[in-house]
Amino acid sequence: MTTRPWLRPAITAVFYVLLVGFLGYYLIFQVPWGQLSRLAFTPVWLLGALVLALAFRYWQTFIWITVLRGLGARGVRMDAELTYVYAKSWMGRYIPGTAPWILGKIYFASQHGVSKTKLGVGSLLEAAIQIAVLLSTSSIMLFLDPRLNVPRYEWLRPAMIAVVVLCAVALIPRVFNWCMALAFRILRRPALARENYANARTILTATAQYVVGAFLSGGSLFFILKSLYPSLAFSDAFFVIASGNLAGAASMLVVIAPSGVGVREGIQFALLAVVMPVAIAAIAVIVTRLWGIAMDLLFFGAGRIALTISRRRAR
Q: What is the rounded average pLDDT for all residues in the chain?
């Protein structure tokens, strides 16, 4: 088979060009910078938001590694190489479609000797668990909040129950493995061997880990809002965490928008307006989007620096 040494750097270059293009378009044309000029922050809360935001991203990487090891992938550990792979692939969410995020992990990690089949199953499973946990935990917390137990939101309560049930069913090992096998047949790939099926232990472990991740991500959002609106009560923390996680999960499901732009903001605004003035909620959704971009870039940059240091030490 003829090797094509130019193909790998070409794919990587296209990935970065698309990433910079869509991210630049959003920052230049979609952000109303004039509305942000009068904002004032309480720095102490931003520090908490920073710590939790970065902790969540590294925790995601750890969960991905845990899933791969649970599937039997060899030579997989949370080192600088695979952490940078995850950070780089996570930036792929800003390219329209969920595929760049998942395919990025498969493509870039396979260059380090990890089985593509294990990466395919593991990356899809990790993404499915993340979305399912964020949806189900946020639905449960919002369902229990008395502020939504009013006629205006009556339709939400049965919808939340349905979401939790669907997420639970989707993560049953037999159901998930059947869906994976079906996907392989549709894509005309070789049949998925049983050794690549996800077992109950792997799914339950990753699910429990993502429950922790849901509170890390949602907690970061709460501290950002606290820095913008100091009157926000700590008793509203669960509501804010649920709002952020629901919006985040929904944005992952909308594959046509880069990082769910518009969908995430719309859901967050509708829910945050329950616990803060409408004007502040409108500004908050813009700030939290910019904060998320900044944290993703910081995660990416930290991963790159750690990788450079690791390679220099190896040499």
A: 88
CA separation, residue 313 to residues 74, 80, 131 (Å): 24, 12, 37
Q: Which residues of the chain have pLDDT under 50?
A: 1-2
Q: What is the pLDDT of residue 262?
A: 74
For residue 120, count other CB atoms closer than 10 A to its CB. 22
Q: How far apart are CA 60 and CA 75, in angstroms?
A: 19
Q: What is the pLDDT of residue 35?
A: 73
What pTM did the predictor assign?
A: 0.90
**pLDDT on residue 2:** 44
SS (H, E, C) the chain: CCCCCCHHHHHHHHHHHHHHHHHHHHHHHHCCHHHHCCCCCCHHHHHHHHHHHHHHHHHHHHHHHHHHHHCCCCCCCCCHHHHHHHHHHHHHHHCCCCHHHHHHHHHHHHCCCCCHHHHHHHHHHHHHHHHHHHHHHHHHHHHHCHHHCCHHHCCHHHHHHHHHHHHHHHCCHHHHHHHHHHHHHHCCCCCCCHHHCCCHHHHHHHHHHHHHHHHHHHHHHHHHHHHHCCCCCHHHHHHHHHHHHHHHHHHHHCCCCHHHCCHHHHHHHHHHCCCCCHHHHHHHHHHHHHHHHHHHHHHHHHHHHHHHHHHHHHC
Alpha-carbon span 203 to 126, nearest angstrom: 9
How confident is the model at residue 254, as a pLDDT?
72
Q: Residue 227: what pLDDT?
A: 93
